[in-house]
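Notes, Module 5: Reading structure tokens.

Key idea: the token line is not a picture. It is a compressed description, and you learn to read it the same way you learned to read a sequence, by spotting repeated patterns. We will look at two proteins. The first is printed below with its tokens.
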Amino acid sequence: MISGRALRYFDTVARCRSLRQAAAQLHIAPTAISRQIDLLEHQLGAPLIERGPNGISLTAAGELLAAQAQRTLRDLERVQEHIADLKGLRTGRVSLQVAEGVVAGLLAPTLAKMGQRYPHLSFDIGIVSASQMVEALRRGDADIGLSFFMPRHDDIVPFASAELHHHAVMAPGHPLTAASEVSLHTLAEHRLILPDESYGARQALERAAHRAGVTLIPTFKTASLETQKALALNGAGVLVLPPMAVARECQLGQLISIPLAPSELEAARIDLCVYRHRQRSFATEACLSLLASALQTLPV
């Protein structure tokens, strides 16, 4: 039988791809990890890792075990959380996979409040696309997903949703700052900073442009929200985002947010999602509740 210790050691090595780094994370000697991996290879009858000049790589068998180890260890952690719930200990860890645009205006203030209310909870936060989020929820790598334009699937359940209108966002001094509203035709005349076509927000913008008979050609195309904002802050072009994504910069007067014509562009749907077939711990339920409440108070 494979021991939990060996599985945990192997999972750490698989993530680090280095015995030395894994040993440092686990606070043990590298030889102790080597012994456990040797034992696993003996039990499974197959090599799991290959040592090379650039570190460790996984064999085909190692890749299979790594995927299973990650799921098994996360499931065991969830069992521990549920047992702690039975004892009323209010402990646990919540794994969230989110869109970058929800962090500053929604996620960060909500988790700060939750940390004050439940000081023994901890959080893992990953920044991913909506499609990556769906797979993370299914694999058990994420307890909660929070993103714009989440794809609809029978096994991914929207716990709460809200709609936010898009704005054109630019640096002070840009010609569009004098407008009370920006049309897609006007937007097309300016240098644009947009995400790539794999993002739901870009797809919604392209659908609206097609209906309006407009072609939007971005001068800058990047998936990184921080890069988009940095370009806009330097006067390089115009963003198309819900105001929540740039609330801090607008409050400081670094960026100006002008509404897009609501009749032209559909509202940005933001979804708080979970996997249908997984029991939720106290920590996850508490986090969902606070995030759902925060969603309903967002300015549209």
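Here is the second protein, with the sequence above and the tokens below, as before.
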Amino acid sequence: MKTWAAVVLLGMSVVLGACGGKEAAGADKKEIVVGFGVGTYEEQFRQGILPILEKEGYKVEIKTFSQNMQVNPAMKEGSIDASVFQSTAYMEGINEELDADMAVLNFVPSAPQGLYSEKHKSLDEVKDGSVIALPNDPVNQERAVRILEDLGWVKVKADAGTTDFNLNSVEPDKYDLKLEVLDSAQILVSLADVDFGVVNGNYIANAKRQITEALKIENTPEQHRVTVTVNQTDLNTNWAQALKAAYESKAFEDYIHDQAKYDGFILPEAWESN
């Protein structure tokens, strides 16, 4: 009987030891996959972050998705370890929608939204019937409409949400505008077909244009700044902390400051201690 108990305990210790070793291996792994949507954040990573991680012995696979909506399902199914494309507000909405458990690791240099036009040189040229292109996802659409609200072009109902925002919450103010909803990545290339469009700044930078070309730039609240996102269970892993440290490093800060395309980006507060 004592012999049998010893065998059982030994077996349990072997199983537990194997599980513990697996968990440790996950925390200490040196191969990671990072996902991106379309835009400039992949270039920031490839040029400014990847060299830092490689010097520390990490092997990184970069996955770029053609549509932002594809990134978070990939995170949930485990095909990527981290993503760099979304805001806190967007992430929280997707967590609820997908029953996911993603968390913010850190903030990255973020591009504000702006109101752009190829047909007009001034905001004074707006009139009743002007066509305004807006992003189709609720979070970015709410941000875009707030720009129009700040200009006095529209009114937004007090009970309008963020992650569940829709255009039913928008009413005319000074002007009766036609609001046209497009995929965020398509607005910049569609500016010739509309009067004005609200474009996420990362698409502007990626097109080798300047954010300062905007006729109006948003004052981006923290909940709309772009983040590095990981699953909650990975927040304190060695690889996640190495990723966070790279984004907060002086070397990456210097890289961003040396690139004119990032003029106008909102910079991480963590850099204040560099």
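Summary for the second protein:
- Residues 113-219 form a domain with the D-Maltodextrin-Binding Protein; domain 2 fold (CATH 3.40.190.10).
- Confidence is low (pLDDT under 50) at residues 1-25.
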